[in-house]
Amino acid sequence: MSEVSIERGRLPVAPPSERRSPLYRFLPSRSNPWRRPVMLETITWLYLLWSILPVGLAVLFSFNAGRSRTAWQGFSLRWYFIDPAGSVWNDPTLRDALFQTLKLAVITTVIAVPIGVIFAIGVDRWRGRLPAVFNFQMLVSFVIPEIIIGVALLLVFTQLTTFIPLGTPAQVIGLVTFQLSFPVVIVRARLLSIGGQYEEAAMDLGASPIQAVRRVLLPMLWPAIFASAVLVFADVIDDFVIVRALSAELSSETMSVKIYNGARSTATPALNALATIMLVISIVAVAIGFLVYRRMTRDDNLGGGAALDQFAAQL
Predict the structure, then answer these.
(1) Is the same domain home to 37 and 88?
(2) Do residues 40 and 102 share a domain?
(3) Is residue 4 part of a domain?
(4) Overall pTM surpassing 0.85 (yes/no)
(5) DSSP states of 228-265 as a string?
(6) Is 137 found in the same domain as 28?
């Protein structure tokens, strides 16, 4: 028994090769605890193939040279920008859907994330029954199906707030309402791990409550804020229910709505190209967010002690 094991109060554990009985090789596969999990691996690979194969086929036929979406006729970028009338870039309806999707994603992210951060800080610092009610109300979007929220917002905009027209204004308000819970949950989780000691230390050094939040707390919340922004942006890209319920004219339809409407009629591989663009934008946004998040969490300047030291040095 090693001294380290004695000091820690634990008995040493022999490596698996020493713990195995010499007879384990002759045990049936179901009785061998060290067997390879073949069944779990098989189920995992089948699930991945079932999930990825249809998407891969849709992406593949977006590069089809012909109009068929089932028979391969050669590789081409025709349906992205080469075809003078049917490609994504040259078809006004598809191009407008692409720009409308990106516009809604950016505007919703810019509005929902700051409101969610302020809401999360307020609910976390505010004690009592009333903030608990507000917190429960904010989490309603996780429980209520999106179709109910979309129909309810449609009734609100058409019956009560008729001064807000359907289309981009109504879509932005509806998406902000639905996406607000994501930054609140992410930022509150970060706040629970941080605690309130850094703000208290900053106020002991002479900072006002607003200065403590702005110069000490917010630098520590940047990873959670950035992660919530990426999540909201990627989720708005493929949102369908709310944007379709609150759309008005054709110019307010997004990529997901165009793909749904086109798939029910005589469609060309241009819809596959549009779906591929939507998929690439989401993957790139998530990948960049993941890399930047890892970089931010490794940065020593994000630590609470570093932020507090920097604030104290500026006094």
Answers:
(1) no
(2) no
(3) no
(4) no
(5) HHHHHHHHHHT--HHHHHT--SGGG--HHHHHHHHHTS
(6) no
